[in-house]
Specification:
Organism: OM182 bacterium MED-G24
Protein name: Transcriptional regulator
Distance between the termini: 75 Å
Radius of gyration: 25 Å
Shape: elongated
Order of helices and strands: HHHHHEHHHHEEEHHH
Largest sheet: 2 strands, parallel
GO molecular function: DNA binding
InterPro entries: Cro/C1-type_HTH (IPR001387), Lambda_DNA-bd_dom_sf (IPR010982)
Helix content: 40-55%
Pfam families: HTH_26 (PF13443)
Length: 254
């Protein structure tokens, strides 16, 4: 029999956990079925160390097929694209909660957060529990987490995160000469046709996708080789007001 393979081992393990939980089964049940100790099963799940034979045996215990596990994994992999008003409000009201949520989306571990930031272990556990209740993460044993939100999730129009950016972040970001290594600022101007405007918008959307893709790829790079970055791209039909004030009242003469 051909057995489907799955590149995302973490997704496979999480799918098995959910199927076991849904069936009311525990690691002890798996241990009995596979004739191993419960501690061995716990280690398999913690280390994500599964042979195809082990997965087959767990599927047999659950009474499911491989495609059921794959479908569960695919359902789990659907990430939240936009937070609710309640979720955004909770984040902006607590800067520590916002910080931890941001770091988790960047694949930081609990140990890395504790080592880098002035957050105590007990406080971090409480923050993780709050993020779990908000359904931003799924908290797992040992303070391991599974993020439920897409790293490039959209801000709500006029919502708390957008308001935070407008009132507290934007001016701080632009308070720079943009002349340090890796920094760049360009202000361009010109008169464009509707077709050219749409072309530029398409390029900007592609640039944003490239930035998100690079951020996701680099989540596996050691922290010592990564740097906090932000990118703001804005484009609109606009003219310098001082120039607009000099326009003829009767319009353009070709």
């Amino acid at each position: 029999m051909l057995v489907p393979t799955m590149a995302d081992t973490e997704g496979l393990v999480n799918a098995l956990k959910r199927l076991l939980k849904g069936a009311g089964m525990t690691y002890a049940d798996v241990a009995v079925h596979l004739s191993v100790s419960e501690s061995t099963v716990k280690r398999w799940f913690a280390d994500r160390n599964f042979s195809l034979q082990r997965v087959d045996a767990i599927c047999e215990l659950l009474g499911v097929e491989w495609h059921d596990v794959i479908q569960q994994s695919q359902r789990d992999s659907v990430l939240i694209a936009e937070l609710s008003q309640e979720q955004e409000q909770a984040l902006v009201e607590d800067v520590r909660l916002l910080l931890v949520g941001y770091l988790l989306l960047q694949r930081w571990s609990a140990d890395q957060i504790l080592a880098r930031y002035d957050v105590g272990e007990h406080e971090l556990t409480q923050l993780l529990a709050r993020l779990d209740r908000l359904r931003i993460i799924e908290l797992q044993p040992g303070n391991r987490v599974r993020t439920l939100v897409a790293p490039n999730f959209r801000w709500r129009d006029g919502g708390p995160l957008e308001h935070l950016f407008e009132t507290r972040v934007r001016d701080t970001f632009f308070d720079s000469e943009f002349n340090a290594p890796g920094e760049i600022e360009q202000f361009l101007y010109g008169m464009l046709s509707d077709e050219a405007i749409e072309h530029i918008n398409t390029k900007i959307r592609q640039l944003a996708e490239d930035y998100v893709s690079a951020s996701q790829r680099d989540r596996m790079v050691p922290l010592s080789r990564r740097h906090g970055t932000s990118m703001v791209v804005a484009f609109r039909r606009w003219g310098f007001p001082a120039f607009d004030a000099l326009k003829r009242a009767d319009g353009v003469k070709e």
